Amino acid sequence: MIIKNLIYPFVLLVSFSLFSQENALKKTSTTSENKITALDSIKKTFVKDDLAACVDSLWLKELTNLDIYNNLTEDIKTINIDEKVEYELSTDLLKARLQAMDEKSPFHIEYNQGLENIIKSFLKNRKRSFERLMAVSEFYFPLFEEAFDKHNVPLEIKYLAVVESALNPKAVSRVGATGLWQFMYQTGKQYGLKIDSYIDERSDPLKASEAAAQYMKNMYAIFGDWDLVLASYNSGPGNVAKAIRRSGGQQNYWNIRKNLPKETQGYVPAFLATMYIYEYHKEHGIVPEKAPIKHFATDTVMVKRQMSFKQISDLIDIPVAQLQILNPSYKLNIVPAYKDQTHFLRLPQDKMAIFTSNESKIYAYVDKEANLREKPFQIVKPIVVQDSVNTSQRIAQAKVRYYRVKRGDNLISIAKKYDVAVEDLKKWNNINGNWVAYGKNLKINATDVEQKTTAVAKADTIKDSIKTSIASFYVVQKGDNLSAIAKKFNTTVADIQEWNKLSSTNVSLGASLQVVQNPTEKEEVADTVERKDIAYSVQKGDNLGLIAKKFGVSVVELKQWNNLKSNAIAVGNSLIVAKNEIVIGTNKATVSSFKKKDNFPSSNQKELEYYVKKGDSLYTISKKYPGVTISDLKKWNNIKDDELKPGMKLKING
Q1: Residue 273: CA atoms inside 13 Å, Cβ hemisphere, count?
Q2: What is the pTM of this model?
């Protein structure tokens, strides 16, 4: 019995242990499967604000919903204001309320049966719509009032935007009128609103409201009556002028109404009915929805790079729909970047804090994504070779290698040796500056250089499988560097330097670089010559400028090759004056021995000819012939400047 009692706890304990292990394994496998993207890496470093997002999905749906605009517009066009509507609102009470509104307004608000009919129609059929519109108006009305107050325009005209667009900045009428204030293309241009492929400022609440205020002010200067201003806004000042003439010179809207276009006949009554419902919504049981975001809770930032709403949404976790509402003037959901103009992005204040605190990282991410896009006339290496099984196994087995810093080493030379970035070396070894101590062991992370190792393995596979191949060339384009070109053609920086006789990592725009080497030819060269760095002992009277001129190189190259921080040199110092040159015998150089033609193998000592190709320069041509300097080429060919033309014949060894 005792044994039996002990078995159950034991089984339970073992089961719990096994369940825990299985759970842990599942968590581990799940974690390993979740790969961290570049976007995740950037967002992890963001400085974040603790304020909660103030717009939910329902509110965004409400702001982008066009059903109210469609329904209200159709109502205004088709409603018969002469048709009586049954609704529980006494005529005497309505007259009293309209009288109270007239006393506080510059508009002529007078009771008539047509106005009563349209008010009752809205209350009967559009109650729910006005509850939603009143929520949206909390966002837009403050900026409307600010624009109208600036131009001394009645603030009540803010209700006109409800009639025009149902407060939707993306509203477009059947004739092309656009935005909150429904500007036509030519009128928008006339009032300074920018319209191009990326931007339509008729949809910009601030700029369109400013233009609307100016229009109202100009029309009032013509008609001197705000009712007629509203009529002219809908039908144009020409139609209002015609209606006045046809009415025998009468200038009250209600007297000329029958001579106005049919749509305009219901326009001003719809405006007055909207004003009434906003003023007396409580008395009619209309409960406005609350807007979770108001205009004063947002701010703008100038954008310095072209970026899409999708990129902004991904980076700062804001819905694209919210960006569209806050920035409705951007037609393609892209914030453009023109050289001669500035563009602004409107964001909620909590998101503004995140954007401005991490601006440089955001632009770095946008630039990175732009560089990934395929560019026009991009040259792609035609040979594609699959990785061998042995290569994959070698990469899998490799873990971390170490390099002991030698005298004369620096981070640039070590990074070049292993074809990695200097920033990676710093990251792997927790190095803050650009200096590394002699004798220090540096860690080279094999997993991070996996792609580069694979590229070298591909080159080996090509050598084994292809006996002969035609060398391929690549024309250097804007933004290129040797590291990027090497990665593009699955080769190494060292190989490109060797094939093109480059002594530094600098490349010129338009230069033609060999990026695929004939293996057979490479092996033959390796059997007959040896490549070394050429050293020179500083003589009395030497300086860097003089030495650079002697050996046909630049002072910058001399300083880079010799890790010099200043131009100061001492007599007897050994300086590298040429990198990776073909030499026989010693690698010590004097001016005369370095220039001697027997310093490199040649079966023919006669004068050579070279025809200039597109992308050539005196520097690149001199590097094709060991021992030949830029000064020599100029002297032999009577060249006074550095300009070369394709097809020009040059003497070599003249």
Answers
A1: 27
A2: 0.50
